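One thing: mind reviewing this one?
=====
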Amino acid sequence: MTYQETLDYLYTQTPVFQRDGASAYKPGLDTARALSAAFGDPHRRYRAVHVGGTNGKGSTAHTLAAIFRSAGLRTGLYTSPHLLDFRERIRVDGEMISRDAVVDFVERYLAMPDVKDRHPSFFELTMTMAFEWFALREVDIAVVEVGLGGRLDSTNIIMPELSVITNISKDHTAFLGDTLREIAVEKAGIIKPGVPVVVGEAEGDVLRVFEDAAARAGSPLVMAVPVVAREMDGGWLYEGCGMDGGDVYGELGGEFQPRNAATVLAAVRTLGLPQVTAEAVRAGFAGVCGLTGLRGRLTTLCCAPYTLVCDTGHNPGAWQYLGAHLAGVKAPRKTVVVGFAADKDVDTILSMMPRDARYLFTKPSGNRGLDAAELARMAGRHGLRGETAETVADAVARVCSEAVDGEYIFVGGSNFVVADLLAVWEKDQAIS
């Protein structure tokens, strides 16, 4: 098989949640365990940190990986979804898995009829590919991001040295429950017997869910302590919270990042790896994007003559902070290019968006995108006015050609929107 043939197989012959939504969701661990066993249970050959939650788990996972790498540890990182390249999901020391390794894994899987007959999902295959790649590359530690939920997520076959739960808000309610308590129960499913768990943010019923789950498992529960933060150079300066009591600069911007930083710092302290020094923490926070390839967290693509920023936030929990960020932007003109998957709580998100911006409503590529005209109608009910564009590429081309000096352009609402933006942006940059 060629690499492209391999990708075609993964995308067309297996259920893909990123593309198909609910029809691709496969709760339960039996298939994941069988698949892993067929490849020798590679996840048992290295230490791991398991990161779940609703918002912030990607930033948290990437920052932890950046810190471990800065400490000299060979570090695996498994995240989802990808934006442009399938291989973004599987990295060792920031480098994506090789194309040859992807082909080799799928060919070996196809030669296992007993396992193939279980019809594993795209996510289950990709996860097992990652775990084996980490073993083959002899990583010291792997940071594994939960795909969806926790209790029944395929990644929950691992026995980590630390579990991390960032926060709880409403997302994927069709699978995880309609209330925060129900969602918390699913997220708490990654708490393992005797394994410490760090919780970034919780109160009331949600906190009680985590306390009860940790008590039943005999797992130490550590609540992240809020950090003192001030904005600095597009990121944040976290004051007096370093391993040596000094300040830590984090390059990731956005109102939610101080909460992620508190979670990361609590995780590092709880894990207590001797290699993770104060300098490794500083280097990881300051260089997370370059060290791990992270994009889509208020990522600035252009800063002159206009500013172009993108973010993958796609649920009310994320937009609680993105909305505040956009409302606080001071610029001659603010333009928001936005599109959503149809299965998201779009009405709630629209209620959080600033009314002093001009809007361009669009539809992301893929089967799950909400029609741009319907989005515009919904936005109108919230006092948001603007025009529509059939595709993200059309929208970006229009706003960039019409931009005034100093304009602030935000593109987001979905992983798919950001992926579409990056595809056209990188193509244009390559041409220029």
